[in-house]
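Students often ask why we bother predicting the structure of a whole assembly rather than each chain alone. The short answer is interfaces. A chain on its own may look different once its partners are present, and contacts between molecules only exist in the joint model. In this exercise we take two input lines together and write out one structure for the complete complex. Read the inputs first and try to guess which parts will touch.
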Amino acid sequence: MRRLGVLILALCLCTGLAAQKVQGPFSFADHLMSTSFLSRAGKTHIKVDPPKPTDFSFCADEPSAHVSGDMDFIGYLLDSGLKEDALTLLGEKAYFPSDTLEYLAGLALFDDRQFEGAAKHFSLSGGSFAEPSTFLGAYSLIHTGRLDEAEYALFSYSGEYGELANLQLAGIGLIRRDFDACRKAVSSFTYSDHRLAESETAIAGLCNDISKRRKSAFAAACMSAVVPGAGKVYAGKTGEGVAAFMTVVPLAVITAEQWKKNGPAHWGTILSGALFSLFYIGNIYGSYVSVGIQEQVIGDEVKALVMYNLHIPLRSCFR
Amino acid sequence: MKSRLLSCIIFIFLSGAVSVRAQSLALKAVEYERVIFEGAAPAAANEAMLSRAGCLVQLGRWADAEACLSRLRMYALGPEQREESAYLRTLCQYRLKNYDAALAVMGEAEFPSAPEAMKLKALVLAGAREFDKALEQAAPLVSDRNALDALFSGRPKEKSALKALFLGIIPTAGHVYLERPDLWWTTVGTVASAGFAVYEAFSGNWLTAILGGGMLLNTIYVDNNLRPTESTVMKYNSESLEKFLQELETILDF
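Now the answer. The structure tokens for the assembled complex follow.
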């Protein structure tokens, strides 16, 4: 009767969790603790929007118009938030190829958050649009994760917006967690240009804060081995740490009670002992992994903040 | 009067230019925007905006069409244009599933009395869960009255999240109320967990009974039975209403 009950419980647990992605028994145990009611309380973090895929192309018809004639209108469309209309006009009307056309296409795609396409069009734009194209293109490349290309474009730049280039380089350093590169770029900030000063202060502050916040996965695993859940609290997942503690410790107590009353060879002791071991090791494994996951979450939040602080000066300087 | 006539003539001229230049509906919509950009008089700008909204509606860009219609200069609209804008705004709000907003637009403006507009009115009323009024509105518009009556007799009932939560305390009652038989396993699991706890308590294993039973009940009963109640109710309410509206659209041939 009792074994049947335990079997039904195990079946119910497996049914409820069958759809979840787990990689092994310890991962399964960690998942069980991490998704409980307790561990989820108060969970929030900033998410970075994934860039949209680009499907923009120019009209294949014989060119018949100059885009410079429509420049004001396209500017009006973009300023009014009608980016889809701007893209329709640029894509469907047969314009002669020019730097202006490439720049406007890049700008429209940039506003529509199609950064892959924006980077491509900004890279083809030159002439009087070379400077805005460099910085807007670098921003687009950073957004799509092509940090090396963005860095190369910024290092090659020499012009009046040198401080803006340093600001973007500091942002790249932060996203890469290359704090030396970030500090080097931050050291060249003058904080004298009102268009950049606020963002420079924010990026410099982030560089200081994040460099002090690095955590060790090994230390988290050791902490969880000593006090179940402590590693998760150390990693910054307090709810999950408390949930792990509330799971592992009761299982240890149950095992101790079964051992004391029924002896070590009793099936109740063996089952509860096995569950305790599974969840104890799962908790250590989870703590080790969660440092990496938490770093990724913090990385996403840092990227969102960096992108925000790089975007404001771009608007002030070029729009 | 003269300026009105002049702006109409200008608009007709610009419309001609738009239709010649435009190759697609999307491009037509852009060219109508250009009419506004080029500083057309209020009446001509309204014409352009209504035409642009019409293009966007045909493209299914409901939010853009609604945004365009909200820029209309109401003081310069004629009675027919008022009706057209009310119809288009209601349609946009309906397609965006903002049924209450659609109802408000219908209430605040002169709504046209054409059959297509009456169908939309019935759909909006049904979307806002005013089923009796919707039936009254839809009845003269359909040939197959029996199908309409059958549909309205099975009108979707809005479930209450609070009631579902209270009923969810008794797992089976909650599942019956939410029409979710697939959650049967949580009932079995809850009963088995409670049985396990009672059995252990009678065997004298108090810690196992309290801690083990508590953990199992938390995992099966709280995490899988009580916690998802609100989202399940919201999903049920919106899905049942959407299904009803789809069937009503089919009957009304909208």
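Check your guess against this: The interface with chain A takes residues 23-24, 26-27, 29-30, 33-34, 37, 61, 64, 185-186, 188-189, 192-193, 195-196, 199, 204-208, 211-212, 214-216, 218-220, 222-224, 227 of chain B (CB under 8 Å).
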